[in-house]
Design a protein that fits this description.
The protein is an all-alpha fold. 75% of the residues lie in helices and 0% in strands.
Length: 99
């Protein structure tokens, strides 16, 4: 079970590292979104890198914690992509294919 969770977490990491590069560096929408955009974009990469350099989990708890971090980063990515009009379909298809 740990290996399966770890495998899927790593696929998520690969997806996020590729897809986040599609987001614009900055936005000029003004207001709250603009102020938090760069911090959120950078946090995706920071969180993913932290999980990536972590040792392979030895317990289900740690494996799940890592997968939750990656899932939260994916949620942030899709939110930022929607708000900036950034298409991510090609990255989803390339990473997850028929799954």
């Amino acid at each position: 079970m740990i290996d399966c969770i770890h495998f899927e977490t790593n696929r998520g990491i690969d997806f996020l590292q590729a897809a986040v590069t599609e987001l614009p560096e900055t936005v000029e929408s003004g207001g709250f979104f603009e102020r938090g955009y760069k911090r959120r974009r950078d946090s995706i990469l920071g969180d993913v890198e932290a999980v990536k350099i972590s040792p392979k989990p030895e317990s289900v708890d740690i494996a799940i914690q890592q997968s939750i971090i990656v899932a939260a980063s994916a949620t942030t990515l899709f939110y930022l992509a929607r708000e900036t009009g950034t298409p991510l379909e090609s990255h989803v298809a390339a990473t997850f294919g028929g799954h």
